[in-house]
């Protein structure tokens, strides 16, 4: 199985730069796992207008920002990976952790809007966040990782780094 240049570039933007092509091709679909689960919960919380559903997701997004693996990745690593026979997911780089941190703040704000009795703001924030999450879940194009690259430089593989 081979990756297109576009998908490879998008995954590199998220920080997956020191992963061989074959391994990355095998795990690429599973790199959508955590963003997809988070997006589904954001969609549910937004549709229900529930700050509690949204706020329940904040610790998971925050842990994804603080550590090199998202908590939802462990569902894959401890269970699904064994069923699919695919390799473990690689550690997340700074761009993907940045995206999780931004998501944690955004989810908090969305929940706060609902809690404050501002449902229009909650629905607007939740809808945009859902669209951003759906984009990375479907296409691997991560807007926050792209922003990270613009602010701090796009990640490069070890062999491409200056000595």
Structure description:
With 163 residues, the protein is mainly alpha-helical. The chain has one domain (5-155). 69% of the residues lie in helices and 0% in strands. It is built from eight helices and no strands. It has helices at 5-13, 21-27, 33-48, 51-66, 73-84, 94-115, 119-139, 143-152. The chain is globular. The mean pLDDT is 92.
Topology:
Blueprint lengths: L4 H9 L7 H7 L5 H16 L2 H16 L6 H12 L9 H22 L3 H21 L3 H10 L11
Helix pairs in contact: 3-4, 3-7, 4-6, 6-7, 6-8
Q: How much beta, percentage-wise?
A: under 5%
Query: Rg from C-alpha positions?
Result: 16 Å
Residues in helices, as a percent range: 55-70%
Mean pLDDT: 92
What is the terminal separation in angstroms? 33 Å
**Count of individual beta strands:** 0
Number of DSSP helical runs: 8
Short key terms for the protein model shown above:
mainly alpha, 163 residues
What would you say about this model in short?
By secondary structure, the protein is mostly helical. It is 69% helix and 0% strand.
């Amino acid at each position: 199985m081979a990756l297109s240049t576009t998908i490879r570039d998008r995954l590199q933007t998220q920080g997956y730069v020191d992963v061989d092509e074959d391994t990355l091709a095998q795990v690429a679909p599973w790199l959508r796992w955590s963003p997809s689960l988070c997006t589904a919960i954001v969609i549910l919380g937004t549709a229900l207008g529930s700050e509690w559903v949204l706020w329940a997701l904040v610790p998971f997004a925050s842990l994804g920002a603080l550590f090199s693996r998202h908590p939802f990745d462990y569902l894959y690593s401890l269970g699904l990976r064994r069923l699919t026979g695919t390799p473990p997911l690689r550690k997340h780089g700074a761009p993907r952790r940045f995206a999780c941190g931004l998501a944690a703040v955004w989810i908090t704000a969305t929940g706060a809007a609902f809690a404050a009795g501002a449902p229009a703001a909650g629905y607007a924030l939740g809808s945009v966040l859902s669209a951003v999450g759906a984009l990375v879940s479907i296409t691997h194009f991560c807007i926050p990782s792209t922003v990270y690259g613009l602010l701090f430089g796009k990640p490069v593989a070890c062999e491409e780094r200056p000595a």
